[in-house]
Amino acid sequence: MTYQNYSLKQLQQIDAAHHLHPFTDHKEMREAGSRIIAHANGPFIYDSDGTEILDGMAGLWCVNVGYGRDELADAAYAQMKELPYYNSFFKCSTPTPVLLAKKLTELAPKHVNQVFYGSSGSEANDTALRLVRHYWALEGKPEKNRIISRKSAYHGSTIAGASLGGMEQMHNQLHGAVPNIVHVMMPYAYELSLPGESDHDFGLRAAKAVEDAILEAGADKVAAFIGEPVMGAGGVKIPPMSYWPEVQRICRKYDVLLMLDEVITGYGRTGEWFAAQTFGIEPDTITTAKALTSGYQPLSALLVGDRIAATLVEKGGEFYHGYTYAGHPVACAVALKNLEIMEREGLVERVKNDTGPYFAKALQERIGGHDLVGEVRSIGLMGAIEIVRDKATKERFLPAGSTAVLVRDHAVAQGMMLRATGDTMILSPPLIWTRETIDMACDRIAKALDLAQ
Ligand code: PLP
User: Fold this and answer.
1) 126 lines ligand 1 (CB under 6 A)
2) Which range among 10-24, 68-82, 95-109, 198-212 shows the weakest confidence by mean pLDDT?
3) Is 0.90 exceeded by the ipTM?
4) Ligand 1 within 6 A of CB of 278
5) Residue ranges of domains in the chain
6) What backbone torsions phi and psi does residue 399 show, to the nearest 5 degrees?
7) Which of 108, 188, 318, 321 is most buried by its number of CB atoms within 10 A?
8) What is the CATH number of domain 35-65+346-452?
9) Nearest C-alpha to atom 1 of ligand 1 is from which residue?
10) Topology of 72-344 in CATH?
């Protein structure tokens, strides 16, 4: 029996009765019910009432090639018929993860030539954490095991992912985080820069917090620094261009590895295949997932730089770590086809040269001037709108986030899906958006802002 045999109301009742959702207040959910998204096509999602909504979040930062791609379904079907599953353990491989590893290392920065697969961003970050600690142990420095991360970072929901992350609410529920992880300030100029401080200087000061943390722990105790190139779930916080090169310089100075979490930014979002290329840095690990398959299959790839890979190979010894679905043949077949579509349609170049700049201008000109908006910012096709009570003083509404939620609800009613995180509205649309889609989104967001006023 398919869902068409059920009414929306019935589906919501069954959902409330049996389905525990992620990041959800289950009491509230029981009372309000969920929005059931039944199908999707191109840039639009549809609920089981048939309501059309423009998806400003690409699902959850992942559907970069948009919905309804028959080619991806066909790739999955063909692979399932040929070989639905075999593992990559015990000196075995299957063809698609091998070919995908080749492709990924061609797209990645030059010093990245190895890939470790998982099924989610969280898993990939668990792998990254274990890998950097393993690296230092192989180098004869097991005590060099601390990780520096940032407040408000999101690195996943497993215990390691949440411990790496800097979300206070998540830490409050961890009841025992992974030890030896510290969190420093984030490069969030809108709230944290000083009066008169330039963006450039703020970026350097935020990077200095990394150096301070290294010095406080002692460089011989610090394994790595981890960060999202652009903080995503924390509110699309875009660092000044001075930040990442300075963080890299500091990491090199103290022989600390640099881990970049590109689960959101990987595969075109910032206008390059990887944000490492946008910011001009060479991290030792790059965590990727989501848009690797445009969300059509669960798959993550931890891209591993030559420095770590060389030690793994030269020193040898088993790395006791891996997942049943690592290098899943069907997920990898879909990823290969997804990357082929992105290349064929020039989606990454389009973000860089056309839709990214147009998106930035449209947000500034059509949303930035609204009374409720303190700042708009974007990079490539990810953007943020700061909701404030007072533009000049940056005073927020109380309770925190209340007006942002109102804007979001009005936006959805206008046929526009975007997300509210605290007082920040965030956008991360499919990369197939055109200038016309951006105009449509701005019209709907502007209307939602008016209605929330
Ligand atoms: N890292 C970042 C930067 C993310 O945004 C996310 C998810 O949104 C994750 C890791 C976790 O990925 P997943 O939800 O696939 O485990």
Assistant:
1) no
2) 10-24
3) yes
4) no
5) 35-65+346-452, 72-344
6) -65, 155
7) 108
8) 3.90.1150.10
9) 155
10) Aspartate Aminotransferase; domain 2 (3.40.640)
